[in-house]
Amino acid sequence: MMTRERIKVLAVVATLVVIAILVPNTNSFVILLATRALAFSILVMSLDLLLGFTGLASLGQAAYLGVGAYLTAILATKYQFGLGLDFWLVVVLGILSGAALAAVFGLLAIRATGVYFLMITLALGQCVWGLAYRWNSLTGGDNGINLRGRPNVGIDLSNDVTFFYLVLAFFAVSLLMMYVLVRSPFGHSLRGIRERELRMRILGYNTWLHKYIAFVIAGAFGGLAGVLWAHTAGIVSPENVVLTTSVDALLMAVLGGAGTLVGGAIGAAIVFGLREYLSTLVPWWQYVLGAVYVLTIFYLPTGLMGIPERIRQHRARAGKPGEAKKLASAPA
Amino acid sequence: MTGTMLRRLCPLGGSLVLILGAGSPVSAEELRIGYLAPTTGIFAQVGKDMVDGFQMYLDEVKGDLGGAQVKFIVEDEQGKPDTAVTKARKLVLQDKVHMFAGGLLASTGYALAPVSTSEKTVYVNPVAAADDLTQRDLDKYPYHIRTGWTSSQPSHPFGQWACEQGYKKIVAIGADYAFGYEVVGGFQKAFEDCGGKVIQKIWPPLGTKDFGPYIPTIKQDADAIFTLMVGPMSLQFPKQLAASGNKKPVIGGGTSYDEFVLPSMGDEVIGHVSALQYSAAIDTPKNAEFVKKYRAKYGKVPSYYSETNYTSAQMIHEVMKKNNGKWPGAEAFVKEMASIKVDAVRGPVSLDDMRNPVQNIYIKKVEKKKMFGYDKDELWNTVIKTYPNVGQFGKYDKAAFLKQPVYGRDFPPCKFCE
Amino acid sequence: MVRLSAQFWLIQAFNGVSYGALLFLVGSGLSLIFGVMRIVNLSHGSYFLLGGYVALTVIWTTGSWALALVVASLSVAVLGLVMERLFLRPLGFDPLRQVLLTVGFAFLFQQAALDIWTGNNFDINPPDALTRSIVVGGLYLPLYRMFMIATALVIGLGLWLVMEKTRMGAAVRATVDDAQMARGVGIDTSRISMLIFALGAFLAALGGVIGGAFLGVYPGLDFEMLPIAFAVVIIGGMGSLGGAAVGALLVGLADNFGKALFPEISYFTLYAPMALILAVKPTGLFGRE
Question: Which pLDDT score is estimated for A327?
Fold first, then answer.
């Protein structure tokens, strides 16, 4: 039976397959761009877990990308670790480091809500940025850390196409895991918290714990995104944890549609496309990007993924006067 | 309509070209140069100056470098190292450039150099000054040529100069990041090696604009203050220092008083001395012409960002001339570029065996006067001393220098800090 | 070793207070906007920067710094008004969308400023009289810092008087406390909102002109000032003018002394306290929710 849910799932799977087939046949610039967008999308989707499902808007999500990326870079350059089969171990460590940081930050942040949560996550994100700049011996400061080539996990990842497939695979797996999570009872309670936290508490839910766990899980995925990000560009620098990176992630989530998971990927694709593709064509791309943000927030509050729903609503509303007419013209 | 007209004219035009072409010398080869600079974002103005400098040279030679026609493709790296990498790959893989140039920040330089290695494409680096790119990390980047400077290069002779002035104790205050460490570190090493003492090192974070917390902590028994400021920090620090009643002489790194910020500075910087491989006030006919032309074209006095790109284009030109406009291949290009000497706007420039410039270092003092025939009194970095043939290691033995760690926050250690 | 003499403490306190004064100018507008309208205005930093840029244009064309103060603040106030009317009002109460809309505008403003004024680092030059320092007991006190403190006091006092002693102020306070009730009593909350937003933008731009001589005017300043303004408002508590004043003072002093005494953690002297205060009291020191 083709429920709306099944259709959505099939559409996503189909899109992924299409991407997997199409992209490697374009030029290397597009492949690299797609890889970057996919890796960053994992971060945006992790933010969507918080934003769209738990109702927590964070302005510091880039910190988890940063911690995963820096960990990968430091292990690769200082300890020659993660360049072979131990790459998978680095992936695990990246996830754990993101989760660990979120566990610490969550203790400070979760009590806050709304704009206060926004601010405290901003402050914590800025602390990570300050650390990246200041802890020169570890992070290379503003020079950043250069990863010398991608790992060889049996297959050589320095081939852009191969690496693209790897990132796509991670993206698909992350999406799947998050999908399972939001459809689980835990995910439903998160949505309940987003709607009416007070009610959930009255019902006996430990809302703090729920939010905290969601925060840690988001941090974990952020760390994963960081590991992939480090190898995509080959350089990790404080730019990765600067405030505007967190803002970007938030904007992408809303652009695509908060609460839809894939919306984050769509938002990322559009922003990366505009930023790095359009910018090779015209100099006024910033205005286009700004206008896209403003117009989306204004006219499409549910983001691009919300368009089908809005069309449906619009049609439903348009249907009603027609029905009235039918009734009126029906024989008495 | 026009389409059919064109189609009718084309065979005619085509045969014309063939006829003309048959009689003319070999048509120009195309030299594709990719350029990476931030053209949007907070560094957009610096990026513009970089591109303008390069473009001005290309315009002067009408895009013809030794017989090759240049296709100059500028990409926006937005001040982000990973965007720079993406754009660089695009330039190499999609636009098939023969070389790429540019990159502003140290992290961008470090991001682009490996791209040059993995894509076996020449990377001409006019700005990013991170020391190790042509020092301890040299072997990783065989296609990287630096045509600008290393952060510590001007500091070495400057330290000597400070000793010659009779300064014995100096307090250093510099932006708390790698570039700051390298400029201050080079100065400290040279200054202490000729008998001076750096008695205090203060590091305000990058982007500090209120130096209120730091200025009162400056030790009173210093003979002079050495400052390393960049961008907006350069504007505010001298003002606040003067307002605090400072009477000590102030010297500093080149970027503290470079022409990028100098036009917005006030009388408080008159008398401040700094060191760099360029000053817009170099009193040679070549520089006078460069400054006047640049100012007429772009409305501002050129900063070292513009000059270094102008000279880089010039150096590329010299190499192409040697090859009669034919691209000699990446490895040969690197070799040839490493061996040329040019008479640049900033003076004579050659490259050392690690592909970093050997050039004049100018000790310059801010003065208010008229120069080059302009009728207004303005602030200029008057050259008061020139140290010729300064390489990245200064007077130091290369091997010994490379054995010591790169200049950092705590290297050289502050032996004389109480 | 730092000389912890009485002189040191005095001058550092003075510096901290003057920095706090600037922060109050930037933060008070933000606090009012949030207090009255519950709008998280992330283009507040842009208002600050635009105030500086407009002032530059006025100074370049007329040479008058005083005129620049007025023109810049008023024009940005108008800009704020337009933005509120056309873009924020229709959104209704939706903090996330407000945040994102204002950020989108902040990006647009940044690019527009770059196109209009170029990206060179500028400095606003106040009248010569203010650039000197007076010497009190061996301490050099820059007149400009005293001017900043004086301005903050005047504005703070002015705002307080309006809020406490006028009908308009009472209406504003009512709206802050309970907008629905206020409407029930006949207060035109939408007009109040508009006024407050314009006032907030006015204050931010004024801060930009005054701060311009102290911080400079350059691209990126908008996003640099934003977290600082928010730190003030968060620590002081949203919607509370007195809180903004205390918050500004605290941030100014803490940041100043933190950097002077513990320069190793200079990058954290602003954000770490902010995070800690929020962790303990999520609505800020004086906030009420």
Answer: 43
Answer for the pair A72, A223: CB distance below 8 angstroms, yes or no: no
What are the strands, taking DSSP E only, across chain A?
145-146, 235-236
| Predicted confidence (pLDDT) at residue C275 exceeds the cutoff of 90 | no
Q: How many CB atoms lie within 10 A of CB B77?
A: 32
Q: Is residue C98 part of a domain?
A: yes
* CATH architecture assignment, domain B155-276+360-403: 3-Layer(aba) Sandwich (3.40)
Residue C150: inside a domain, yes or no?
Answer: yes
Q: Does A77 touch chain B (CB under 8 A)?
A: no
**Overall domain count for chain C:** 1
3-class secondary-structure state, position B346:
coil
Beta carbons within 8 Å of A247's beta carbon, 6+ residues apart: A59, C103
Question: Following DSSP, what letter does each residue of B191-225 receive, concatenated?
Answer: HHHTT-EEEEEE-PPTT----TTTGGGS-TT-SEE
Assess if residue C1 is contained within a domain: no
Of B93, B114, B130, the CB nearest to A29: B93
Give the ipTM of the model, two decimals please: 0.86
Cross-chain Cβ contact B209/C131 below 8 Å: no
Establish if C10 touches chain B: CB-CB under 8 angstroms: no
Q: Pick from B211, B226, B207: which is nearest to C12 by CA?
A: B211
How far apart, in whole angstroms, are the C-alpha atoms of residue C74 and residue C64? 16
| Cβ–Cβ under 8 Å, residues B73 and B34 | yes
Note the pLDDT of residue B55.
95
Longest CA–CA separation in chain B, Å: 86
Partners of residue B90 in chain A, C-beta under 8 Å: 28-29, 32, 280
Residues from chain A contacting residue B115 (CB–CB below 8 Å): 234
Structural contact between residues B273 and B369, judged by C-beta atoms closer than 8 angstroms? no
Positive or negative, the Cα torsion across C185, C187, C188, C192? negative
Query: What is the Cα–Cα distance from A2 to C239, expressed in whole angstroms?
Result: 51
CATH of the domain at C64: 1.10.3470
Per-residue pLDDT in tens (0 to 9) along chain B, 418 residues? 444 444 444 444 444 444 444 444 445 689 999 999 998 888 889 999 999 999 999 999 999 998 899 999 999 988 888 889 989 988 998 899 999 999 998 889 988 998 999 899 999 999 999 898 999 888 889 999 999 999 999 999 999 999 999 999 999 999 988 899 999 999 999 999 999 999 999 999 888 888 989 998 999 999 999 999 998 899 999 999 998 889 999 999 999 999 999 998 989 999 999 999 999 999 999 999 999 999 999 999 999 999 999 999 999 999 999 999 899 999 999 999 999 999 999 999 999 999 999 999 999 999 999 999 898 999 999 999 999 999 999 999 999 999 999 998 888 999 988 6
Instruction: Give the chain A residue nearest B108 (alpha carbons).
Output: A143
Q: What's the confidence (pLDDT) of residue B378?
A: 92
What CA–CA distance (Å, rounded) separates B299 from B283? 20
Q: What is the CATH superfamily name and number for domain B29-151+284-351?
A: Response regulator (3.40.50.2300)
Q: What are phi and psi of B135, to 5 degrees?
A: -125, -100
Residue numbers in A near C284 (CB within 8 A): 116
Which residue range(s) make up the domain with C145?
Answer: 6-280
Respond yes or no on whether the N-terminal peptide bond of residue B328 is cis (omega within 30° of 0). no
Residues 6+ apart with CB under 8 A from A276: A33, A36, B83, B86, B87
Query: Is C288 part of a structural domain of the chain?
Result: no
Tokens of B226: 């050495």
Q: Which tokens go with A95?
A: 């996830």
Q: How far is C106 from chain A (nearest CA, A)?
A: 8
Contact A237 B90 (CB under 8 A): no
Q: Where are the domains of chain B?
A: 29-151+284-351, 155-276+360-403
Mapped onto helix, strand or coil, the DSSP state of residue B258 is coil
